[in-house]
Amino acid sequence: MGKKLIQFVLALAILGLAFYVYVLIATPIKFESEQKIREKAVIERIKDIRTAERQFKSKYQHFTADFDSLINFVANETMEGERKIVDEDDSVAMAQLKKLRKKNIEKFTYSVKDSLFKHLSAEDVQNLRYIPYTNNQTEFILDAGILTTESKI
Fold first, then answer.
1. What is the pTM assigned to this prediction?
2. How far is 29 from 69, CA to CA, in rounded Å?
3. What is the distance between the alpha carbons of residues 15 and 1, in angstroms, rounded to a whole number?
4. Where are the beta strands (DSSP E) in the chain?
């Protein structure tokens, strides 16, 4: 009976040590995997902010330092664009446009949200200011200013 008890205790110790070694190996691997997922989410959010800022600047000729303005811009505003009506290599279509005294440019408006940010839900747009995986507790810092160089540019 004593020998069986010692074998059972040793078997449990071996299983316990095997599990401990597994945890020691698996923890850093899981951490690295989770870190990559979070880094990718943060990078995508920063790219979205950059895209929104560039569109804001193209409309208003300055960047915004306020997330409320940026979020409102993405969610509610429109931009104006231009496109060619016909291919300039199509001589028949170009002749018809010339005959009608029309330019080969058509102006149109488009929603900022529906064109550039269709991959984001309305909630994602409202949470643009928050760093992912922080339960909307930590915000990015958004700042804009004017830099004057010696050449006054």
1. 0.71
2. 41
3. 21
4. 78-84, 105-111
